[in-house]
């Protein structure tokens, strides 16, 4: 019975994610698009929870929905796009874009293996589930220490780069 | 427990939607948001594989993807801001020169 409930929840979340993504891409008003992207991110966080990735779900809500999307929203309101809702949303080449999207979706859909059987845990010694915070943290700070530090360097470079790029030129 | 095949299919569909948005929209900010949708689709696939293989490395790669998405948002929006100063009312098909 819990498996049935999990499947129902998954298919609801999947359908809601796809609908939110389609609405986000096609809405005329950019603010409405952002709010649909927010709905998409929250539903994807639910999918992470179902997939046993609790930490990832929390990061998704806090960082994606909380920080990145609010950043985009503030930015959109800062720019105050005039007459955005009156202009065409898509460029003249939109049939090509739709064809590319459909082609990619068909390719990926048919390339996936629907008969993936669950593998027995190869590292079955760990008693914690792979998604638990202690397991993720342990792997993150033992095997992935160097990539973790490099990510912090990338974030620092991004902060400095954003300030440099957005700064007013002294002469201009 | 989620069905892995369906989860990967969902990732593919979301990625395709983001691809259409990135290629088709005329507003640069919505193109950047479409990139975020694509990165999120990849994260869905990574989480599904992580659960399927009982290995937390997939989630760690997804965390790195989120960090890179944050960096991309910061730099991308900085570029859009610099562009909006010189060319207000930005539409991508009007940006055809290499340097302003």
The SSE string of chain A, one letter per element, is HHHHHH
- What profile does the largest beta sheet of chain B have? none
- Tell me the radius of gyration of chain B: 17 Å
> What ranges of chain A have pLDDT less than 50 throughout 5 or more consecutive residues?
120-128
How many distinct helices of chain A?
6
Please compute the radius of gyration of chain A using only Cα atoms: 21 Å
User: What's the total count of β strands of chain A?
Assistant: 0
Number of helices of chain B: 3
Largest sheet of chain A: none
Query: Which consecutive residue ranges of chain B, at least 5 long each, have pLDDT under 50?
Result: none
* Inertia-based shape of chain A: globular
Number of domains of chain B: 1
Number of domains of chain A: 2
Distance from N terminus to C terminus of chain A (CA atoms, Å) equals 67 Å
Q: Spell the H/E element sequence of chain B.
A: HHH
Structural class of chain A: mainly alpha
CATH architecture of chain B: Orthogonal Bundle
Distance between the termini of chain B: 52 Å
CATH top level assignment of the largest domain in chain A = Mainly Alpha
Short description:
The complex is a heterodimer of chains A (172) and B (100). Chain A is mainly alpha-helical and 172 residues long.
What structural keywords apply?
heterodimer; A: 172 residues; mainly alpha; Four Helix Bundle (Hemerythrin (Met), subunit A); globular; B: 100 residues; Helix Hairpins; 3 helices
Describe this structure in words.
The complex is a heterodimer of chains A (172) and B (100). By secondary structure, chain A is an all-alpha fold. Chain A folds into 2 domains: 1-81, Four Helix Bundle (Hemerythrin (Met), subunit A) (Up-down Bundle); 132-172. Chain A has 6 helices and no strands. Chain A has helices at residues 2-26, 30-50, 54-79, 94-111, 133-142, 145-166. The longest helix of chain A is centred in the middle third of the chain and has 26 residues, at 54-79. With 100 residues, chain B is mainly α. Chain B has one domain (7-94): Helix Hairpins (Orthogonal Bundle). Helix content of chain B is 76%, strand content 0%. Chain B has 3 helices and no strands. Chain B has helices spanning 4-24, 28-52, 57-86. Chain B is elongated. The termini of chain B are far apart. At the A-B interface, helix 1, helix 2, helix 3, helix 4 and helix 5 of A face helix 1, helix 2 and helix 3 of B.
